[in-house]
Amino acid sequence: MNYYGDPVNKLIEQFSKLPGIGSKSAQRLAFYIINLEPEKVLEFTNTIIEAKDKIKYCQVCCNFSDKEICEICASSKRNNKLIMVVEDPRDMAAYEKTNNFNGVYHVLHGLISPINNIGPNDLKIKQLLERIKNDKPTEIILATNSTVEGEATAIYLKNLLSMFDIEITRIAYGIPIGADIQYADEITLAKALEGRRKF
Q1: Going by DSSP bridges, is the β-strand pair 56-57/79-86 parallel, antiparallel, or unpaired?
Q2: Distance (Å, rounded) from C-alpha 193 to C-alpha 101?
Q3: Torsion angle, CA of 140/155/61/163, rounded to 10 degrees?
Q4: What are the chain's domains?
Q5: For the whole model, what pTM was predicted?
């Protein structure tokens, strides 16, 4: 039965497509939007459109940015000879919150996962190789999650990067197996970074 009318049902359906949003949360969000003042709804939709239109990949690290080169890569205070490779921008943000890393990042935007049809060519690995050739870093820190996919990606990168005269390290296992970096606390992340090892 159509309880709310097609426009409301379509709105609920769109919200339910978002990750982590079930049917009850989708209903709550839809009703919240419907009850907003029209100018607030317009502000909300314009913010989504602006983010979609203006956000692009940093030309250096592939992080999301509204500029050609993100603030981290553009900073003269960062050590661009030390590159931490992470799965996605949320992992980079988690490490930044520790205030314990002065290097730069490279964002893969995913992990190798044959079961999900994600291979090396689907990630920002080609850009990493170009960057290593051009910038000649001294160390690459592989900071992928300690999941099956994260380990597979780290091993793949280690083998691929062995052609370069560069130190390759892996973050320590202060982060529990199967956990996501973005949900770890700052102390755990800092300890994992300090305890990194050759890989």
Answers
A1: unpaired
A2: 8
A3: 60
A4: 6-54 (1.10.8.420), 72-198 (3.40.1360.10)
A5: 0.79
* pLDDT for 81: 96
Contacts 24+ apart (CB under 8 A), 147-155: 147/111, 147/177, 147/178, 149/111, 149/112, 149/113, 150/87, 150/111, 152/111, 152/112, 152/113, 153/87, 153/108, 153/111, 153/112, 153/123, 154/199
Task: Answer positive or negative: Cα dihedral of 175, 176, 178, 182.
Answer: negative
Structure tokens at 85: 């490779």
10-residue mean pLDDT series, the chain (199 residues): 78 92 93 94 94 94 95 95 96 93 96 92 96 95 90 94 93 73 78 75
Alpha-helical regions (H) of 35-170: 38-54, 71-74, 89-97, 125-135, 148-161
The number of helix segments (H) and strand segments (E) in the chain equals: 8, 7
Which tokens hold the place of 147? Answer: 């999941």
Q: Say what the pLDDT of residue 199 is.
A: 73
